[in-house]
């Protein structure tokens, strides 16, 4: 069962969703990777928006 | 400078209809001249950006590479002069998100962005599935043959987006015809004149008359939605405000036009192109039919494969350097999405249709701030259609030669005749 503390983040530009529980293996981010542990230089894999322009959302 | 025959091919609508001819031209460019200037006959020179990485570089830098400073679609000198004479100096007949730069682009996009986010589209899935099932039933009612492009792919995304926009069903054939007249303006089988376009002036006049027909239609809808707002995109645009003021007439009309054209035509092209590709690659159809979890992979590969938007233009706002080349302020750049999506440096065997391709970071939706607003809706529409169709489709094959539209901007297959067995 997923950790209820896992958060979901969304790119303001394109709507790409990063779920901490799922990670994004195509980006080298394993399931369970916390948002805080992703480097600040990381950019949205879909549109290139900086990490700072993501919002935490509830799905 | 790019050799003249290749330069002419890049802007030739018939080369895109041919498929192989445009693929060969861009494959040659990626190999020999990946970022070089072209000057097709009758055109101002422009840079041709063919590599995936360079397209991303340009699209990410929205302040350095503007959309609106010059034409956003490759346009010859005579047509550009005529458009500027019609508009009082602007290179654009419309002013939608595509022609805007910041701050306007950000402000106008924000108006409707929320409606197209995945979490908000979820509410539409039940209705979209109902629509998809209706089209699967209609396909079955054809018996064992249909033109998948004309009978299914053109009509299903049209119906979905018109419901989202708020256009009544009885006006859908009109919206489809206007869309095909706009994007198919160079195709004698689709354009308004029904003939080969040989005269630039009459070609531009015809496009303007199509745009005016759209504007007349949506102006009446605006009045209605201001008086009686509903839960649709038209009401959002009609009643939207930027800096406390209603949208300008041109901007509002352009917003409707882009939603009512690009909102379905690109998905239709991709859907038709996917079916064509599956018919030519029965092993891929067998895989996805046996394992529906491969449908998202089919969708991404279809989008890469078809790449329905063939290019957009950008204009450099300052002297800069790109991939080691000096770009001067005011230079015009053509971003070739089909080329980026066949870039051998990014895609293994790029000319192979492979629904298991991973990663599949195509640039068909663009990149950066101008990335396609409707990308999540497009994916959802295709996923639902394939889920519903593949449950009932036992087998299919081509029943004649498919045909592509004759166009160099937004285009895809216009006919995909198939023979099929359904239950």
What does the radius of gyration of chain A come to?
Answer: 11 Å
Return the domain count of chain A.
Answer: 1
**Quick check: average pLDDT of chain A?**
92
- Across the major sheet of chain A, the strand order is 2-1-3
The overall pLDDT of chain B, averaged over residues, is 97
User: Mind telling me the C-alpha Rg of chain B?
Assistant: 21 Å
According to DSSP, the number of beta strands of chain A is 3
Multimer state:
heterodimer
Number of helices of chain B: 18
- The tally of helices of chain A reads 0
What percentage of amino acids of chain B are in beta strands?
5-15%
- How would the global form of chain A be characterised? globular
Main sheet properties of chain A: 3 strands, antiparallel
Terminus-to-terminus distance of chain A: 17 Å
Distance between the termini of chain B: 56 Å
Strand order of the largest sheet of chain B: 1-2-10-7-3
Topology:
The complex is a heterodimer of chains A (59) and B (423).
Chain A: E1 8-11, E2 17-19, E3 54-57
Antiparallel strand pairs in A: 1-2, 1-3
Chain B: H1 4-10, H2 13-18, H3 20-32, E1 35-38, E2 46-49, H4 52-60, E3 65-66, H5 77-87, H6 104-113, H7 118-121, H8 125-141, E4 145-147, H9 148-153, H10 156-165, H11 172-183, H12 200-227, H13 233-239, E5 241-242, E6 245-246, H14 249-280, H15 282-290, H16 295-306, E7 311-316, E8 320-322, E9 325-327, E10 332-336, H17 337-340, H18 375-392, E11 393-398, E12 403-404, E13 413-415, E14 417-422
Parallel strand pairs in B: 2-10
Antiparallel strand pairs in B: 1-2, 3-7, 4-14, 5-6, 7-10, 8-9, 11-14, 12-13
Helix pairs in contact in B: 5-12, 8-18, 10-14, 11-12, 11-14, 12-13, 12-14, 14-16, 14-18, 16-18
Give an account of the 3D structure.
The complex is a heterodimer of chains A (59) and B (423). Helices cover 0% and strands 19% of the residues of chain A. Chain A is built from no helices and 3 strands. In chain A, strands 2-1-3 form a 3-stranded antiparallel beta sheet, with no helix packed on it. In chain A, a hairpin with a 5-residue loop joins strand 1 (8-11) and strand 2. Chain A starts with 7 loop residues before the first strand and ends with a strand. In chain B, a hairpin with an 8-residue loop joins strand 12 (403-404) and strand 13 (413-415). Chain B has helices at residues 4-10, 13-18, 20-32, 52-60, 77-87, 104-113, 118-121, 125-141, 148-153, 156-165, 172-183, 200-227, 233-239, 249-280, 282-290, 295-306, 337-340, 375-392; strands at residues 35-38, 46-49, 65-66, 145-147, 241-242, 245-246, 311-316, 320-322, 325-327, 332-336, 393-398, 403-404, 413-415, 417-422. Helix content of chain B is 51%, strand content 12%. Chain B has one domain: Cytochrome p450, CATH 1.10.630.10. The A-B interface holds A 10, 13-15, 17, 26, 45-49, 57, 59 and B 56, 59-60, 113, 116-119, 358-359, 361, 365, 367-369, 371, 375-376.
